[in-house]
Amino acid sequence: MKNIKINNNFKRIFIVLIILSIFLIGIQAASAATPTVTVEKWGTGGDVTKNSLIKKNIPKSEITTKVIKAAKKGTPVVKFGNGKGKKTLIVSGVHGSELSSQVASMKLINYLSKKKNIKGTIYVIPFVAPKATAKNQRFYNGKNLNSIANKKGSITNKIMLFAKKNKIDAVGDFHCTMPGGNPGKNIIMGTKVPTLKSARMAIGISRLIKQPYRNYLIAGKEYPGALEDVLNLRGIPAVTCEVKTPHGKIASGSITASLRQMLGFLRYNKIIT
Ligand SMILES: [Zn+2]
Q1: Ligand 1 centre from 8 Cα, in Å?
Q2: How remote is the CA of residue 172 from the centroid of ligand 1, in Å?
Q3: What is the pLDDT of residue 120?
Q4: Where is average pLDDT lowest: 75-84, 168-177, 213-222, 245-254?
Q5: 214 - beta bridge partners?
C-alpha cells in the first residue's frame, strides 16, 4: 500500500516536470536571443552620457547600461545572432557630434534585443569613438575619421579590418548632414565601381524607405579615406546614410529618419522582415 502511494507521487512529479520542461523550451524558442556586448580596445573609450543630448535621448534599459559601460573601455560592439547566415554591420559615430544616428543605433539595439526571428547576424557599433561623442566633437583626437580609413592604424581602418575578419557581407555607415551642407538632406549613398552591390543596395534601401539615393561612380575618388569607399574598394558592399540635422544637435524627426534607414538596410539584406 505504502509503496504504491510513493510510486503515484513519483509519477505525478515526473509528469509535472515534463510539462514544465516543454513549456520552458517553448518560451526559449519564441523569445529573442540575448545580444553579446564586446569592446574593441582601440583607446577610444569615453563616457557617452557626458553628452547630455545622448543621455537624454537613448532608451533606458539593461542593454543600454551594458553598452555605456563597454564604451568607457573602447569601441563597443553589439552582436545579434550566432554568427551564421548573412552578416551585416551597422556603424554610427564616425563623427562624434553626429548625434541622431548614434541615438538611432541605441534605439535599434534596444528594438533588436526584443525582436524574434533575426535571420543572420547583425553587428552594431553605436559609438565609433565614445571619447569624441562624450565631448560632442566631430573629430577624434583632431582627426576626421571619415577621411583616413585608408590609413593603417586609424580607427576607421580598424573597422574595415573588423569587417574583413568577421566576413561581413554588407555595411551601413550612418551619419548626419548639416542643413544647407552637402548633401544637406536625408539620403542613401553608394558607389558603382568596384562593388556594384553597394550601388544596388543604395537603390534598394531608397525604394524600401522612400528616401532619395545618390550613387558615385568610383570608390575613393571623391572621398578617399571615407569608410564606405575603403570598404567598397576591399570588396565589402557598403552604403553611407545621412540624415539632416545640425552637428552637435538633434533636429526633430532626425532620429526616426536614421532608424528608418537602419531598418531599411536590415530589410534590404533580408536579416529582418
Ligand atoms: Zn559624418
Answers
A1: 70
A2: 13
A3: 95
A4: 75-84
A5: 189
